[in-house]
Specification:
The protein is an alpha/beta fold and about 250 residues long. It has nine helices and eight strands. The radius of gyration is 17 Å and the shape is globular. The structure holds zinc ion. The site of zinc ion has 5 residues, from loops.
């Protein structure tokens, strides 16, 4: 059984065949899925999907690239959404310095405030962090993130930084990049990290694993990620699936 801990089935790339695709999940061993909001609108879509499908859970939050839409009222709206029974975390939130906008100050402000929201609502967080390791760790420490708990999804930093996150009680999200030829850094991280710190994720429709790199991703491709982790760690695919499935249940409090 596989738990896809990070998917975006609300994305328009699934508009044409969403129902048909989701109806194939269980028979292919994809037992549960967390659909992750990245804006106010997609957070609402994630909740709708979680109400429609018993095996889908919702995560609500505003991605660093979308924080210009946030204000005090919207944050309160997020709080109300986070109290829905199938909302299991706050995210994806964080810092993304790859693009010049929104400003780093604005991203940091809303990252901190959404971390506070998670603490107040007793929910873990799903963190997106790109080219911003130092500030991400600083804000996590300032906000005592070790008391909140969470995952650093689509982990792209060094194994040393993964250890710091793991020591704060965080999980590391691993997806299609682990199968890429240029995924050396992530392979080192996975080799170094105990399996009970790893969550499986797709980030679909993005980041399809080899041999589908560049195509639309879906949870059905996760067995390629499982195989890559099993090879790196020298263990069976079953063990990778069992341990990461239980990690995901523990992480999302299910
Ligand atoms: Zn994502």
């Amino acid at each position: 059984m596989i738990f896809d801990t990070h998917a975006h089935y609300d994305d328009e790339q699934f508009d044409a065949d969403r129902e048909a695709l989701l109806s194939q999940m269980k028979e292919n061993g994809i037992e549960r899925i967390a659909d992750i909001g990245a804006s106010m609108a997609s957070s609402k879509e994630a909740l709708l999907l979680s109400e429609k499908y018993d095996f889908i859970y919702a995560v609500v939050g505003v991605h660093p690239s979308e924080v210009e839409e946030l204000n005090d009222d919207k944050l309160e709206e997020l709080r109300i959404m986070s109290r829905k029974p199938k909302c299991v975390a706050i995210g994806e939130i964080g810092l993304d310095y790859h693009w010049p906008e929104p400003s780093r100050e604005l991203q940091q402000h809303w990252f901190s405030r959404q971390l506070s929201l998670a603490r107040e609502e007793h929910k873990p967080v799903v963190i997106h962090s790109r080219e911003a390791a130092e500030d991400t760790l600083r804000i996590m420490k300032e906000q005592k993130a070790e008391e909140i708990g969470g995952v650093v999804h689509c982990f792209s930093y060094s194994k040393e930084i993964a250890r710091i996150c793991a020591d704060m009680g965080f999980y590391i999200g691993v997806g299609g990049v682990i199968t890429f030829k240029n995924g050396k850094k992530l392979k080192e991280t996975v080799a170094d990290l105990p399996l009970d710190k790893i969550l499986l994720e797709t980030d679909c429709p993005y980041l399809a694993p080899e041999p589908y790199r560049g195509k639309r991703n879906s949870s059905l491709f996760l067995p390629y990620v499982v195989e890559a982790i099993a090879d790196i760690k020298g263990i069976s695919k079953e063990e990778v699936m069992d341990v990461t499935y239980n990690n995901a249940l523990r992480f999302y409090g299910l």
